[in-house]
Amino acid sequence: MKKENFEVLLEDINSKFQFVVESYEVLRSDISELRRDTRERFDFADFKFDTLTKRVDGLEKKIDAIADDLSAHRADTEAHHGAYHVMEREG
User: Fold this and answer.
1) What confidence tier does 43 reach under pLDDT thresholds 50, 70, 90?
2) Cα dihedral sign for 15, 20, 24, 30?
3) CA–CA distance, 40 with 47 (Å, rounded to integer)
């Protein structure tokens, strides 16, 4: 093979190799961006889930307190047989 032909072949191989390297860099950048976006979305979802959990816990405590108050009120009302009557309304 002549030196000129060999140099042309090497230049062609070099340009193809450079294309592969540039393509790899683009993919690497895209993967990094996707990872960053995914992490941000999961962090935001975790924040929303934690916030919702706290609100549900707060509601459970309020419901339990209302149930306790209602039970105490009903027990007090039933203790006074002659004065008060517990009546349930149909809704």
Assistant:
1) very high
2) positive
3) 11
The full 3-state SS of 30-61, as one line of letters, equals HHHHHHHHHHHHHHHHHHHHHHHHHHHHHHHH
CA atoms 13, 19, 21, 27: torsion sign: negative
Cβ-proximal residues to 61 (8 Å cutoff; 6+ apart), any chain: none
pLDDT digits (tens, 9 = 90+) for 53-81: 999 999 999 999 999 999 988 887 777 66
Amino acid at 36: R
Separation CA 38–CA 44 (nearest Å): 10
Contacts of 86 (CB under 8 A, 6+ apart): 74, 77, 78
